[in-house]
Amino acid sequence: MPRGRNKSCHFCGSDKTIDYKDLRTLKRYLTDRGKIMPRRTTGNCSKHQRDITIAVKRARAIALLPYVKE
């Protein structure tokens, strides 16, 4: 089975934080339908993937991001 290169977590190597108000960063982790992309696709570690999920859900709850794109 061929192996590709290892994806590294974008947030582990830098001092960036995940904030629900940073919509530009959060939109990178949403599909065109508005779903949160899985960890195996984004390459994030599990800790930061959980933080992204929580931030997206908070942004959706206060109407900064839509639940479903039309």
UniProtKB/TrEMBL annotation:
The keyword RNA-binding applies. GO terms for molecular function: small ribosomal subunit rRNA binding; structural constituent of ribosome. One of its GO terms (cellular component) is cytosolic small ribosomal subunit. The keyword Ribosomal protein applies. GO terms for biological process: translation. It comes from the Bacteria. Transmembrane segments: none annotated. Keywords: Ribonucleoprotein, Ribosomal protein, RNA-binding, rRNA-binding. Belongs to the bacterial ribosomal protein bS18 family. Binds as a heterodimer with protein bS6 to the central domain of the 16S rRNA, where it helps stabilize the platform of the 30S subunit. HAMAP family: Ribosomal_bS18. Part of the 30S ribosomal subunit. Forms a tight heterodimer with protein bS6. This is Small ribosomal subunit protein bS18.
